[in-house]
Structure formats: C-alpha cells, structure tokens
Amino acid sequence: MALSRTDMPLNDLRQYAPDLPEPPDLDDFWSRTLAEARAAGSSAQLEQVSGPIQELIVEDLTFPGFAGDPVRAWITRPKGEGPRPAVVEYVGYGGGRGLAGEKLAWAAAGYVHVLMDTRGQGSGWGTGGDTPDPHGSGPATPGYMTRGITSAAEHYYRRVYTDAVRLVDHVAEMPFVDRERIAVTGGSQGGGIAIAAGALSPQVRAVMPDVPFLCDFPRAITQTPQPPFTEITRYLSVHRDEVDAVLTTLSYLDGAILARRIQVPVLFSVALMDEVVLPSTVFAAFNAVPAADKEIEVYGFNGHEGGAFWQWHRQVEWLRERF
User: Fold this and answer.
1) Catalytic (active site) residue 304
2) How confident is the model at residue 4 (pLDDT cuts 50, 70, 90)?
3) H or E stretch including 27?
4) Is residue 149 part of a domain?
5) Residue 233: which CATH number?
6) Which residues does 201 contact at the CB level (< 8 Å), separation at least 6?
7) How does the average pLDDT of the chain come out, rounded?
8) Does 275 map to a domain?
9) Is 90 labeled as ligand-binding?
10) Which residues contact 308 (CB under 8 A, 6 or more apart)?
C-alpha cells in the first residue's frame, strides 16, 4: 500500500478526524446569506449557442448569484426529450468556464452538464472566464484566499459558495432537468465548492469532489508547502495580530466543517502525493460526512492531478448506480 509522501500514512488518514470548532451561528449565517441572495435575484436567462458542436445542445446561462450579481455558466446536454439527470460542475482555482463546448464528457454520457464560471477568476489557466466579482475587500495578498479574510460576511468564498447554491436552485427549475437527480462535482477548488453546495443545498442528491481544496484550514495553512493555502500563511506573517479573526472567518467556509451537513451519497477522490491539497485535509472532510453511502478513491502515486479521467469513469459508474 502506498504511503503519502507529503502527509501521513493511509491507515492514519482513514482515522483522521480533527476536532474543528464550529461557529455557533454557522447555520443561521448561511441561511441568512442564501435568503438574501434569493431575494436579490430573479430569473435566469438561457441562450442557445451556435458553433461547431452539432450533436449536443450548448447553451449560455446567466443566473443571479450572491447579491443578485450575474454569474455565467455553460449548459451542455443531449438532444431529445427530457428530463435528464444533471451534473453541476465547479472549476479549479484560477480557471473560468472557458469556451463553449470544451467539456463534453458528461453530456455525451447522457447528463445535463452545467459548468459554473467562478466570479473574478478565469485568467490563471484555461481559456478564460466571463464573470466579474464587483465586491471589494480590505488588504489582501495576491490571489483570492485572503479577500475579506477578517470577516466571514465579507470573504470572497461566501460569494462563491452562494453562487454555487443559487446555480443549483436554477438548475432544479429547468424543464429538461430531473430535479430529483442533481449531482455536484469539481476538482480542487471546484471540489471544495461542491462540498459546500452539497452541504447547503437541499436540491443536491449526490456529491463528487475530487482532491477538494478549502478543507481543514487550521492544518492546511500550517502544513501545506504549495499555494494557494500559502496565501493565508503569507498574510498572517504580515498581519500578526489577526490570527484569531482569520481562523474564525475560515471556520464558516471550511469544507471539513460544512461536510458534517451532507446527508446524500458522496464519492471523493484523494491523491497521496498531493502537495497542493494535503491528503489529510481531504480525509478530514470525507470522514466528517455523516451519510452512510460514502466512498473515497485513493490514488497512491499521484499529485494534485489526482485520478483525472480515470476518476471520471469511476464517477459515471458510481452515479449510474444511484441515479
């Protein structure tokens, strides 16, 4: 059995369950946040895209997210009558939704695939994004992790998680979607967002995070050797008096805390040689999920690429058994 090069042995990982303190108003915080977003936003707009993809339907979705802000997404789906199960996917750190038709696998497998743009991102890799983040923050290090870092109400990921849940709200209302069969997925940052969506949205019926980021912040910011967690480490090396405030803020956003609220089936993946998202932080979230139907795929000799398309094959098999 492979051992983690960056963290702890696999047998220890399977037992790892940190006692992360939970804010007493966590549920109220997210209930208020989502209620405010739903009150601020109205209907979504959907426009069919013309282009080289001819055997699938590709649509450009604009929906109201946090504070009613317009957020973009691609919908790619098979032709023919519905409703069909849907897979909502969130993007990794720094990336955007890219160009129409870039991601066809889920639609080719018979699902409605919805790919959310991440507000303010889209210029770090890939082919771009289309969603601005109109909200500012106080002093921050380069990147997204420390934007609004001293207040959960102001933090960047409060807005992103809200976008993710609001997207599921709108997907559930689409006539070509079977609202009883909606799954969420994503890799790295997208996996962390999927955990949040699975915890906060009653419409989600399955959660499939791959090498999920944004989990077990207390360990991640002290032990992870690679960015983006080191953005927080660097911030605290300057703002030496803000450690308690920062950890409090992050406790509202921590996937290993939010995962305690996931009651639907989950399929995680983890890579034991990952230096961007430590395996222990993934297991912290996975082990916190109370759902009886939960599995984790372990890639012993991979880094942050995880299982890549191998894992997609596993997801299709797993999801078809449940949907």
Assistant:
1) yes
2) low
3) helix 26-40
4) yes
5) 3.40.50.1820
6) 164, 165, 168, 169, 184
7) 96
8) yes
9) no
10) none
pLDDT of residue 137: 84
Kindly give the pairing relationship between strand 70-78 and strand 56-64. Answer: antiparallel
Does residue 3 belong to any structural domain of this protein? Answer: no
Q: How far is CA 285 from CA 89, 203, 256, in A?
A: 19, 20, 4
Residue of 155, 251, 274, 280 with catalytic role: 274
For residue range 121-174, list pLDDT tens digits in order: 999 989 999 999 999 888 889 999 999 999 999 999 999 999 999 999 999 999
Q: What is the residue range of 67's domain?
A: 10-316
Choose, from 4, 188, 269, 280, the residue flagged as catalytic.
188
209 domain-assigned: yes
Annotated active-site residue 28? The verdict is no
Count up the domains in the chain and report the number.
1
* Residue 244 is among the residues annotated as catalytic for this protein: no
Whole-angstrom Cα distance, residue 285 to residue 216?
A: 7
What is the phi-psi region of residue 31: left when phi exceeds 0, alpha when psi lies from -120 to 50, beta otherwise?
A: alpha
In this structure, what token pair is assigned to residue 219? 């360990």
Q: Which phi and psi angles does 210 have, rounded to 5°?
A: -110, 130
Label residue 2 by pLDDT band (50, 70, 90).
Answer: very low
How far apart CA 270 and CA 277 sit, in angstroms, is 9
What tokens were used for 5?
A: 């090069």
